[in-house]
Amino acid sequence: MALPSFPTLSDDEIVAVARAGRDEAWAELLRRHHPPLLRYLTGAVGDPEEAAQLAQETYLDAFRALECLAPGQPFAPWLYRIARNNVLPYWRRRARLQFTSLDPTAERYRAPLGIPDDIPDWAAERDVLRQVLGELSPLLREALLLHALAGLSAPEVAAAVGIAPKAAEQRIGRAKARFRAQYEALSGGKAAELWNRHVGHPASDRRGAGGVG
Amino acid sequence: MSATQHLTDGELVAWDDRSLDEGLGRRVEDHLAACPACREHLADFLEVERLLQERYPLVDDPAARERILERLQAERLRSRQTQAAEPTKGKTSKRSPQSR
After folding, report:
1. What is the pTM of this model?
2. Which residues of B touch A203 (CB under 8 A)?
């Protein structure tokens, strides 16, 4: 039998080939889904190495659980549901470490609240971003990152986190509104200046997303 | 949604996702055309996305994909070996009804 031309196949078709034990199918699934998964995980945990490790664990879990993916069930939300099972415990561990630490110097390991003037703007902005993400509740943070970084649509986010599509729309919207407000509140004029610098950039690269016109 | 009511956060997300039906989508567009506050809110939403996407760019890492693929292949091999060993193992290790 001739090898199927993987790039032309849908995720469903590739998953069917993967079920038959063909590693080329997994290579194609990785080619399609690893970059956005890694991006999502990097945003979620902040550390690229930790994100790469979580991505690997997510694929191993998906590989072992492939039989649980129902025929016709979309692969991407299912993959992110598995990723979620790795990210949420990570967040819980981190939160426990911060709350239980009695070492006053532990504060230095957290993102700074203020922005020193002597570091480049890009670094300051990154700190603010992490701080703002950290201020969001885990559920809002998760919905925002799945939508903005993984490129999932609201119905896909809904499938990934196990809620109704309308609830996902509301959660993503609330997360964006909260993020915007926190971003300004945490760093005042500096953030507003950085924020305004972004106005007018090309449209979002999320799947199916479009600009205002 | 009405002409006097602002769009909800969820409606803005759904519109941006192109997931509204044609009628509702058109009503959202009509509202946006007439409401500067909602246009600004939508622009804020798009900026949040753009800010995150620019800070966390999409990066392909073929070496990392290759390492994961090797792990999956090793996992498949291990799984096949386990399955091949199972019939014999099943006969020898089957517990009696009395065993705990």
Report:
1. 0.79
2. 46
DSSP A156-176: HHHHHHTS-HHHHHHHHHHHH
Neighbours of B82 (CB within 10 A): 10
Mutate to test the interface with A, among B7, B21, B47 (most CBs of A within 10 A): B47
Tell if the CB–CB gap between B48 and A144 is shorter than 8 Å: yes
Residues B32-45, buried b or exposed e (16+ Cβ, 10 A)? beebeebbebbebb
For residue B69, the chain A residues in CB contact (below 8 A) are: 23, 26-27, 30
- The 10s digit of each residue's pLDDT in A134-165 is 899 999 999 999 999 999 999 999 999 999 99
Greatest alpha-carbon span in chain A:
65
ipTM, two decimals: 0.79
Amino acid at B48: V
Give CA–CA dist A43/B17, Å, rounded. Answer: 21
Q: Do B43 and A59 touch (CB under 8 A)?
A: no
